[in-house]
Design goal:
The chain is an all-alpha fold. The protein has helices spanning 8-33, 37-44, 47-80, 86-98, 101-114, 116-123, 132-156, 161-168, 173-184, 186-201, 205-211, 221-230, 234-258.
Amino acid sequence: MKSRVKSPLRVATIAIGVGLALFIVLLLLLIMSHPTLEGMLNSLQSPEIHFAIYLSLLTSFISTGLCILIGVPSAYALARYDFPGKHVVNTILDMPLALPPLVAGVGLLLFFGTTPVGEALAMAGLVFVFTPLGIIVAQFFVNVPFMLRIMRSTFEGISPRYEYVAKTLGCNDTQALWRVTLPMAANGFLAGSVITWAKGIGEFGAALMLAGATRMSTETLPISLFLNMSCGKLDLAISAATILIFMSLLSLYIFERYGGFARL
């Protein structure tokens, strides 16, 4: 029996992929192993880190809810219906993915800080500039395309025939969506929600521009990492980074486990 000859291309491409994976693992290990265990535990007990965790969780959950509320129906429309300008709308909705977060943050700052709409909202008590509300808006703006792409992919993978059958049994369009399509899209919905939440927790650039970087006020975990690195408090910075790494690993596992055919 002839031994299989290994293709040089196969060996080279696998080696490149494995090498990149090892490089990523090395970087993560360097971050998590840099402080001593005692220093890490002391940092995790800091009120500043507790506040950053609380604010990160609060803002990311709210912004993820907004992404679900806006992104799911928009994704359904893009997956199921044809309308004039659909490709233009699709491209525009993907723009936040291509924009640097800092540029997105500048746009949001100008909108909420200088336009009549922003001024009217501020007079009504909704102040977004240099407040936690700005963090929520920044997370939503930057991350809603992830929910859109994942849910659009999910809806496109579900045959519309199921909805047609539901309609022949007496359902209207909304009932067919609610009772048939959304339950079938559960895995994509979960994956989209988790990855959007994870991206929200890690959002930095746009949030920095709109909400600023004020300790114990607009200090999320990425902002805490930035502030403490800037002033040399390495243990606090690494603690924030370690928490973000664990959250990222958890969300990535859930996305890969339950994402199914939903992909970015």
